[in-house]
Design goal:
The complex is a heterodimer of chains A (about 80) and B (about 400). Chain A is mostly helical. Chain A has one domain: Non-ribosomal Peptide Synthetase Peptidyl Carrier Protein, Chain A (Orthogonal Bundle), CATH 1.10.1200.10. By secondary structure, chain B is of the alpha+beta class. Chain B has 2 domains: about 170 residues, RNA polymerase II/Efflux pump adaptor protein, barrel-sandwich hybrid domain (OB fold (Dihydrolipoamide Acetyltransferase, E2P), Beta Barrel), CATH 2.40.50; about 210 residues, Chloramphenicol Acetyltransferase, CATH 3.30.559. Chain B is built from 8 helices and 20 strands. Chains A and B meet through helix 3 of A and helix 4 and helix 6 of B.
Chain lengths: ~80, ~400
């Protein structure tokens, strides 16, 4: 899957952390943590969920670049082209 | 035989509704076993028993709401023969009611047609009690019109007409829970501000060493093994507290009871609104990995509304951490009967004077709110200095 196709799947993982989210609540290109109330534990749990769901490694230095849903999807698509 | 009373669930929870029994008469229990699930304004709480024995009888039915301190089960302790008549009710610190000590139940509540008069504050006929439980009414709050004021079936029927419809054994819906939780928080915080003469202190702590150490540590670890800065802060608080007994313990019955153990209450926000502050026990003895695992587990269970009674009653001091999306500093309100609360604002780069030069450095504002009945600002300040010192040696945490 490409990054755009992955969006609903990554969003579904985010929703497990923040169940109050509804479809369309997150603009993919805008900073995620400005739009969703995520503390550092939520953020870590979200990244762990992405790591486990799509079998991608995420280093701590990647955090700074992973500020939007779009960027997270791009990272997943780049590191695991077979992710689906 | 011993009465097992509904344990205290913290300053802001004074009653609970039994949702479910996890044991039945005849079951052997050990200290710490979960015997019941009780719904409170904050969460469904797993109630743990505090001593070993065999459950002799269950005194209340699911759906019943009772105040903290009410006898909810009879326990036969090791060495006692079954069916022994219990002695007078044990001298509880604060019996919930002044009514005479109840008679022992003659058998399990579930036994048919047995005149099991549970530990009631006034007499209630078994049938009336059963109906009241089914309706989610508290029979002890219903006016009795039978002989000697016994609450009868008719009384329960009448009360049903007056009371808002209630569903037994169903957890409170989220919206109601949020409103109830707000009331509970307001009650506990009002009590705190009324009774506790607070003092407040804050200190800006440089976090460069802790941040560097943590980054290097996390770089070596898989994603699932990473540690949050909050964990370093909790551990540093716990270690620093060991030298400040006047900040760690309880104010009870007009006197301070210091605690040797440091059980940190961790303020956790609930997504639907409100917060809880359950304990992580014996934090000084936990290494950072175990502390991280405990914190992750506690946050998860707090948000799922799945905590244990001891986690609400154990905290000897609370830590509130605004986290990396929070404000710069916080001056928190002490959670009675505790006597202090530690606050952390956001860790962020700020100007810091180091060796005569100003440079950008990650810092955090740590604060302590203390209880003047027990300690003074002088000791509170010394605690913050010790906390800052601990955070400069992250490798020793």
């Amino acid at each position: 899957m490409n990054a755009i196709e992955l969006r609903p799947l990554v969003f579904a993982e985010l929703r497990k952390i923040a169940p109050e989210l509804e479809e369309g609540d997150v603009e993919p290109g805008k900073p995620l943590r400005d739009q969703v109330d995520l503390d550092s534990m939520d953020w870590l749990n979200f990244l762990i969920a992405v790591h486990q769901r799509f079998a991608v490694e995420i280093a701590e230095e990647d955090y700074a670049t992973l500020d939007t849903l779009e960027r997270i999807c791009e990272l997943v698509a780049a590191r695991n082209p077979d992710a689906s | 035989m011993t009465e097992f009373r509904l344990p205290s669930l913290g300053a802001d929870m004074d009653e609970g509704k039994l949702l479910e029994w996890k044991v039945k008469p005849g079951d052997a229990v050990r200290k710490g076993d979960v015997v019941a699930v009780v719904d409170t304004t904050k969460a469904a709480v797993e109630v743990e028993i505090w001593q070993e024995g065999v459950i002799e009888a269950l005194l209340i039915e699911p759906g019943t709401t009772v105040p903290v301190g009410t006898a909810i089960a009879m326990l036969r302790v090791p060495g006692e023969a079954p069916g022994m008549v219990p002695p007078a009710a044990p001298a509880a610190a604060s019996p919930p009611v002044s009514a005479p000590s109840p008679k022992a139940p003659s058998g399990p509540v579930s036994a048919p047609a047995e005149a099991t008069v549970p530990s009631a504050r006034k007499p209630v006929s078994p049938a009336a009690r059963k109906l009241a439980a089914a309706l989610g009414l508290d029979p002890d709050r219903i006016e009795g019109t039978g002989p000697h004021g016994v609450v009868t079936l008719d009384d329960v029927e009448r009360a049903r007409g007056k009371a808002p419809p209630a569903t037994a054994s169903v957890p409170t819906p989220a919206a109601d829970r949020a409103a109830e939780m707000r009331k509970s928080i307001a009650a506990a915080m009002s009590r705190s501000k009324r009774e506790i003469p607070h003092y407040y202190l804050a200190e800006t702590i440089p976090m460069q060493r802790a941040a560097d150490w943590l980054a290097a540590e996390n770089a070596r670890r898989p994603l699932t093994g990473r540690i949050l800065m909050a964990v370093l802060q909790l551990k540093a608080v716990a270690l620093a507290l060991q030298g400040f007994p006047e900040l760690n313990g309880f104010w009870r019955d007009g006197a301070f009871q210091p605690s040797k153990a440091v059980h940190l209450g961790v303020a956790i926000s609930i997504r639907q609104g409100g917060l809880v502050a359950p304990a992580i026990r014996d934090v000084p003895s936990l290494d950072l990995d175990r502390l991280m695992a405990s914190l992750a587990d506690l946050v998860k269970r707090a948000r799922a509304g799945n905590l244990r009674s001891s986690e609400f009653s154990d905290p000897t001091i609370t830590v509130t951490n605004l986290g990396d999306a929070g404000a710069e500093s916080t001056f928190a309100v002490i959670y009675p009967p505790q006597v202090a609360i530690v606050g952390f604002g956001r860790v962020a780069p700020r100007p810091w004077v180091d060796g005569g030069e100003v440079r950008a450095m990650p810092t955090v504002v740590a604060s302590i709110s203390g209880d003047h009945r027990v300690s003074d600002g002088h000791r509170g300040a010394a605690f913050l200095v010790e906390l800052a010192r601990r955070l400069q040696e992250p490798e020793k945490l």
